[in-house]
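forwarding from the other thread:

> can someone predict this with adenosine monophosphate?

sure thing
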Amino acid sequence: MSHEFFKIISRKDFQDLLKTFSSTGTVMVPIAEAFGMVLAEDIVSPEDLPPANRSCMDGYAVNARDAFGATESNPAYLECRAELKVDQNPEFRLAPGECAAIPTGGTLPDGADAVVMVEHTHELGAGTIEIRKSSAPGDHTMLKGEDAALGETVFKAGHGVRFQDVGLLAALGISQTVVHARPKVGIISTGDELVEISSPQKVGSIRDVNSHTLRCLVAQAGALPVNYGIVRDDLEHLKAMLAKAIEENDLVLLSGGSSVGMRDLTVQAIEAMEDSEIMAHGVAISPGKPTILGRSGSKPVLGLPGQVTSVQVVMLSLVMPFIRHLMGDSEAFSAKGRPMIQAELERNTVSKPGREDYVRMKITHREGDIPQARPIYGKSGLLKTMIQADGLMIIPADTEGFYAGGKISVWLI
Ligand code: AMP
Ligand code: MG
């Protein structure tokens, strides 16, 4: 049975329904492949890093007390005990009044707690070094365990692996790690008017845009897109393709046919699937209201609006965070992954209360202390507003808009 009316729920409630789906299974991968994926286990440091105190500079390892208060006019004089190599483990103890020449990355001998940069020293010959700058314990040194201490949890399960994290894992000698698998996401475009992009322009037909933009955004979220092409507004065909896509994927996205018109068949197609349920139909965001959440067994199916801009906004605001959730990201729905800038709003911007607005924004002036941003208006069937946009401004459901001159946040897209 087709639903006659939307029962519109808030973005927050829609999100809570999305959160009821559990993450995909786990896999062990080499650390560089874990980049962009989410840890399925805590990472506990197997050792101290660095394993001993190290120098951050070329210079002399000293006991800071011996160089304390030294200046150009009142230098300290120390005996150079050794010239250390970068890969040497110094097996001696620095006695009072002694120093040791040390390269960047070299290990400090016992008894040394600071490094004086070579620029602030002078070799006087016969092993005597003039120290022309005062030193304090810890100066120009990395302490044992400062990057990671033995037994310390360096990353928690649910953490999205960034390139710098891969660097730490490498330094700790961890070559493989357990992450959540990238979900496979089936993508279906629906509509009698749709044609392949290779088709010549013809009045009455529309080239399939959504298959291509959705593919990009699914990949950007870290999942594996699987395209199923165009399906006509024919319930039997749609049911067959949807069943196949559900079978072969962890999540299925349909675009088009998500509203309540005669040819809007997504609800019926989902309802025809095995062990299925429509969990929500309608979300209080604009653009993007006619969005459907359904499931078949434990697999989510999302019916997205056909309008090219609406579907892009729903992808950014709901579906990509959902994909991150399926990938095990504990902060999937937070603003953490969103690059934001502060800007001054150029024009009054009104919004209908009761829905969350995603206003396309153009950054007009970047010079000066704070950039300026202007809302871009236009129909959600046009590609243009998103093409011109540098970002989105979110107007909360309980707000009627923002005044020109006010400070706003722009989510860069
Ligand atoms: P619908 O939700 O099916 O009524 O579609 C709303 C509008 O979006 C219609 O004008 C469709 O032609 C258009 N549309 C639907 N799917 C696509 C698509 N894959 N690419 C481009 N436009 C689409
Ligand atoms: Mg349609």
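The mean pLDDT is 96. thats all i got for now
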